[in-house]
Amino acid sequence: MNFILLYLLRLVLAYVTATITLFLLSALSLALPYTSFFARLLSSYLSLVVCATYGVLASILLRVAGYHRISQYVTARSFKWVMYFSTGVVFDIVEGVEHLNTRPCVIIGNHQSELDVLLLGTIFPPYCSVTAKSSLKLVPFLGWFMALSGTVFIDRSNRTDALKAFEGAAEEMKRERQSVFIFPEGTRSYARRPEMGAFKKGAFHLAVKAGVPVVPMVCSNYWGVLGAKEWRFRAGRIPVKVLPPIPTVGLTPADVEELTRTTRDAMLRELETLTASPLGQKAAKAAAVQPGEEDLARLATTMKTP
């Protein structure tokens, strides 16, 4: 047992040492332009594991105390701050933060990349849970935390099971005043421009069935901050806007298609406007900072604290 613990400790120390070394190389050497990408990649994975482990423990303690419905909010905020200090990346709600107080509701947002986990760390309100594909249950640490904290798991390959999960979620939302967050695109876009994929209707069916409003959240395109295919991952501020709640009282399943279309159109317009803003342009343009020029300490001290 002691041997296993010693091995794990050495593994963690080696991981942290490699991450710090890559950060130093990215700050000091233009000859190694991709060290910044790998430094922040390693730092992000370590941050995720640390916060997911914290989330498992917090979920257990909060469940015992009767407050398990805020487990995801508590863990999300910890991830926001750990990532801010370890990578220099932060999502900034520039307008509409008051709309996140709507409860219960279905919050929806555009889905760009794996970095959207950090987006949830910023916008996630208390008494809210995410929906996720059922395969995530099997992921160590993250899956354990999600299962303990009330995630609504959806088996996308089985329509019957998916519908049952949404029906159960609708009843729980009404009974417990619990909100739900969903990415209606269903998958990451990795978009280089302000664009979104087609919306699936599940989030809107859920909102209509529960009789709760839809709260759209729009995040600026941030290809300039994270471009995985280009091996670019740099510090930066990414603007986010929360739109006013869209009521669903009185709507029926027949109205879902129109609700989906008009909501997507409104979000796409806002995505284009937000990306065109000065802060949005800094996040979206790859040429704003050249690879290897990021000095994490300098950027972190010049950026406004979120």
Overview of this protein structure:
This protein is α/β, with parallel strands linked by helices. The protein has ten helices and nine strands. The protein is globular. The longest helix has 31 residues. The termini are far apart. 50% of the residues lie in helices and 13% in strands. The chain has a seven-stranded mixed β-sheet with strand order 1-9-6-2-5-3-4, sandwiched between helices. α1 crosses α2, α2 packs parallel to α5 and α3 packs across α4.
Number of helical runs?
A: 10
Strand arrangement in the largest pleated sheet: 1-9-6-2-5-3-4
Number of strands: 9
Overall body shape? globular
The secondary structure category is: alpha/beta
Helix content: 40-55%
Q: Return the string of H and E elements.
A: HHHEEHEHEHEHEEEEHHH
A few lines on this structure:
With 306 residues, this protein is an alpha/beta fold.
